[in-house]
Amino acid sequence: MKWVVQAFFIVLVLFLALFSSHNLLSPFPITLSDLFSKPYLEIQRARNNVNANRGSLRARLLEDALNRIIKWDDQNEYIQFAPLVSQKEDHIDNLFRVDVLHPTQVYIENHLATTKSKLNEVAAVLLLTYGCFSALFLADIEGTGLTKLLEKYNRRKAFDFIQKVNLVKIPHHGAWPKNGENLNTLLEFIDPEIAVLSVGSQNNYGHVKPELFDALTNLKSNSLKRLNKFICTEVTRTCKSSPSDCSAMKNKGLSSTEKCAGEITIIAEESGKWTLKTETQHSDIVKGFDYAMCT
After folding, report:
1. How confident is the model at residue 155 (pLDDT cuts 50, 70, 90)?
2. pLDDT of residue 158
3. Distance from CA of residue 205 to its chain's centroid?
4. Torsion angles phi and psi, residue 146, rounded to 5
5. What is the pTM of this model?
6. pLDDT, mean over the chain
7. Given this model, what pLDDT does residue 104 score?
8. Would you say 186 and 146 are in contact if contact means Cβ atoms under 8 Å apart?
9. CA angle at residue 16 from 15 to 21, to 5 degrees?
10. Domain parsing of the chain, residue ranges
11. How far apart are the first and last CA of the chain?
12. 3-state class of 97 per DSSP?
């Protein structure tokens, strides 16, 4: 029975290829429905069956169908996959809107069937829009998840359809991913006015990484970019200690918690204007650091 259910994918892919072959290379499909429902976790189950029966004809056919669905999902960013048991919900309230940019349901199921770790790669990336104001929340995105997100922006770039944002929430508490060049490119694409980092003073991961601060500093000094401020919730060793001292500390954090900006509040207006409020007198605090990056 499971093979019969999963054969559904093969029929689906052939149907889509016949029905909208001219759309398979376009990020703006115009003939397909904007919502396709499928059995929940069926891709993950199908991938597990392929792995368990690798070499058989049925496994090869099923894997081919899965790969075509993944390719179709990658190339058609406005086609949404949703569990069959639930209805599509628009997260819209008048001028306020929340869009989930990553991950798609297909990516989640295929990823979890392939690896039980690297959960940051399926972190939810949210775009919040209020009138002309927008903010991108990058959660803990890294690795292939970050690559997929950048691919989406690359497709939009080809059509001059990249939405710049007023604010970006830097991912993973100021970590620098192995594919950091992708994060740097993404930041250049979205061209934020302010970058916010939520980080703890006593973290034992070496956050905020100097490479992340370097990327933000370069953006801020680029006259063609809009970034005029980046700010952290708590003080980290990167701003208090020299590079050599940080290296000697390995990944050890500070001995106690110290607020930098503290709680960060952005008051956004429909026009796109925004105001920053911090719990502390942030500018006064950073003056006392020898290696402050956000001055």
Report:
1. confident
2. 59
3. 20
4. -65, -40
5. 0.74
6. 80
7. 82
8. yes
9. 120
10. 2-83, 92-286
11. 63
12. strand
